[in-house]
User: What shape does this take?
Amino acid sequence: MAIGWYLTVSALIFCIGAVGVILRPNPLVILLCLELMLNAGNLALVAFSRMWGHEDGQIFALIVMVVAACEVTVGLGLIVAIYRRRLPINVDDLNELHG
Amino acid sequence: MSAVLFFLAAIGALAGAVGVVTIRNPFYSVLALVCHLIALAALFLLLRAEFVAAGQVVVYAGAVMVLYVFVVAYVGGSDEPLHRPGGALKVLAPLFGLALAIELCIAMLGTVLKGVSTDGAAYTQGFGTPAHIGTLFLTTYLFPFEVASLLLLVAAVGAVMLARRRRGLEPEEEVTPRFVPRAAFTGTMAEAAGFRAGAGTTTEPEKQTEPVGAQTSPPAGVGSTADRPEGGW
Assistant: This one.
């Protein structure tokens, strides 16, 4: 398969993730959609790595996975802290830092 | 054969992505993301990135998703409205996504990269194997590798600090010692056997105060943290 097909799939996944981040009010689902966008970037990186025949893109993809794991850990810690304080788990109601 | 596998994996990945966004229950969203990640690992294998595919399945679909499932079970995933009650974003978000997709497609069609329409560079033996990736990580990319390990450590410590239960004292709470020291030679075997002088008349008031102290001291130590609501900071 041509590399362009993989890039198309990557672009579509990225757009779906972006729509989810905007649309969903639950921070858990927003984190899931961020995962989608990061994975779309990973797919593009690995596809370009295959295109050039170098493994540098795969190294970059692995580093992106590490950063995504860190982001998930801190994000889920924040959600657990929000739940412990009995605040609503809804990004529209958690707007005290807003303005 | 590779075309069939590609389309199967691509359809699986796209269906999983759509499922994450459109399923109302967060628990099923997480399961849809697991399907998406496994399909994506198949795409990585088709691109001859064996180590990345293995890492995707083990780290992502294994460890990170288990973390998600635990948090969803803790927080309590229930059905919820798909979009905010305001309503403007319901229209604007798909429009934004469509605009983004059109822009990315224009960028891909207008590219001058010749390799995009080919199957990629010629396959060399050992491309994407753990041996090659490990060699690169320990030679050319040693510094990013070390920085990544430091970042993981910082994230783990930060998550523990964020999510731990605060056990500090409330402002109005008094510090009470857990043990109240009893009078000398009371409550010993010598006193029970009657060898000590303190075992005479003075033991009766001591024995009355002893259970009172035993009843009051445990709530000061243990009960106060149990009475406090779980979210006490």
In short: Chain A has one domain: 3-84.
